[in-house]
Design goal:
The protein is an alpha/beta fold and 204 residues long. The protein contains 5 helices and 9 strands, in the order ββββαβββαααβαβ. β8, α5 and β9 form a beta-alpha-beta unit.
Amino acid sequence: MALAVVKSATTMMSPDKRRPMVSIDSVTMSFGTFIAVQNVDLTVADGEFLAIVGPTGCGKSTILNAIAGLLKPASGTVSIDGAPVHGVQNNIGYLFQQDALLPWKTALENVELGPMFKGTSAGERREQAMKWLAKVGLKGFEQRYPHQLSGGQRKRVQMAQALITGPKVILMDEPFSALDIHTRHLMQNELLALWQEERRAVVM
């Protein structure tokens, strides 16, 4: 099954002036005797928004997981900002299709997790988390638990989680597919607005 790539037309600089942020060179991913993707070559420039499109089962999630370091290629190489990917990466943000929030923590505490793992002080990470929740439209919802939030609100918390640590690359595996069509379009527009402001490399 074929994969296709759609790149943003609104990047700030011409491609030859932007350094490659994600490089996939001749990557083949296999599970036992099953070949999920074969000989994939892909480059995503800094600040570029790239969508991998194709039918269900064509290997989109597999490629994203290879970039994240969650899966190891059978052959070929994956690099982020020139450094080969070996194991789970701490310089990416990942928006999953499934809810990835800890149910026993508030929205604020969930967003604080990334900075906490990076050793940010309690006061600074609290300030950062408050700022990002406000950015994604959740000011006033900081003390709500995931079960007290709508599906769209939970995705906003995950967006804040993915962006708070200033990742070089943001990966998105159909994060809005479970939402109703109105909320999905709203979230897509909000994500594009955040991308235009932050200018990270995005692969979805």
